[in-house]
Write a structure and sequence with these properties.
Blueprint: E1 6-10, H1 15-26, E2 30-35, H2 38-46, E3 53-57, H3 63-73, E4 76-81, H4 98-119, E5 123-132, H5 145-164, E6 169-175, H6 188-201, H7 210-222, E7 230-233
Parallel strand pairs: 1-2, 1-4, 2-3, 4-5, 5-6, 6-7
Helix pairs in contact: 1-7, 3-4, 4-5
Bound molecules: NADP nicotinamide-adenine-dinucleotide phosphate (NAP).
Length: about 240
């Protein structure tokens, strides 16, 4: 059902977003991959079949960059927002600097907000928006207060937009722990230990791969009867 659809993936050059781009291309969509680093965009487009994708350099922290991109992109069907950055977890509210905490809303929350605002006039009937949250909105460990707040705000934005943007559909995916470059700032030994510990606790016995999560975005784009929903793909993490 994504045959001949135009799909914009903001944050599509790596990780979950790139897996969504690959899946959409497999289903016959044309994908526009956008992210902030030109080399990442070029590499992502180059890894997809020739002619199936185009790329654009967009910094979602910049309203000007986002507006200029959507002014140029032309009519399209689906917007996927997976742009993200690592959040410093385990920071109690009493210890985190307020400006730093505020700053982390810029990319994931205000970036998504700016994107949907600029994208809406370009979106065709029958299309959809799929945003990205995280399990800390549902099950925040101590020290995750501001990360949980960002994720919770995105879920609320999704439900509000499902009414405001109707008949366009708006949904959000909530990934659990996924092996992507998002974790590259953690030294490899410590990262492997974190992944092993989490895998041992999860009912499914492993952490997620980008394709596991991409499946939910693809389904939400295809299924014309789902809107305003948060889909958790976490291997059972919110249950443990
Ligand atoms: N991986 C996990 O365990 C996990 C768990 C829960 C939620 N999530 C969320 O899922 C989303 C995707 O995560 P991921 O694991 O796929 O991360 P990733 O592999 O690090 O990919 C992040 C993507 O965002 C792009 N990006 C970063 N800053 C940007 C900016 N200012 N403007 C535009 N694009 C930007 C990156 O490309 P450039 O560097 O070229 O800009 C890249 O394409 C994020 O919101 C993340 O927080 C991930």
């Amino acid at each position: 059902m994504l045959q001949n659809k135009r799909v914009v993936v903001l944050g599509g050059s790596r990780g979950i977003g790139f897996a969504v781009a690959q899946g959409a291309v497999r289903e016959g969509a044309h994908v526009i991959i956008a992210s902030s680093q030109e080399a990442n965009v070029a590499s992502a487009v180059g890894r997809l079949p020739e002619g199936a994708a185009t790329g654009a350099v967009v910094d979602v922290r910049s309203v000007e960059s986002v507006s200029a991109f959507f002014a140029e992109v032309g009519a399209f069907d689906h917007l996927v927002f997976t742009a993200g950055e690592p959040l410093p977890f385990g920071k109690p509210v009493t210890e985190i600097d307020l400006a730093t905490a505020r700053g982390f809303f810029e990319l994931r929350y205000w970036g998504a907000f700016a994107a949907v605002k600029a994208a809406r006039p370009q979106m065709r009937d029958g299309g959809s928006v799929v945003l990205t949250s995280g399990t800390s909105a549902r099950r925040p460990p101590a020290g995750f207060a501001f990360a949980a707040s960002i994720c919770g705000a995105i879920e609320s934005l999704t439900r509000a937009l499902a009414l405001e943007f109707a008949p366009l559909r708006v949904n959000v995916v909530i990934p659990g722990m996924v092996a992507t470059d998002l974790w590259s700032g953690v030294p490899s030994d410590a990262r492997a230990q974190i992944f092993r510990t989490m895998a041992a606790k999860l009912p499914v016995g492993r952490i997620g791969e980008p394709d596991d999560i991409a499946e939910a975005y693809l389904s939400l784009m295809r299924n014309a009867y789902v809107t305003g929903q948060s889909v958790i793909v976490d291997g059972g993490a919110v249950l443990i």
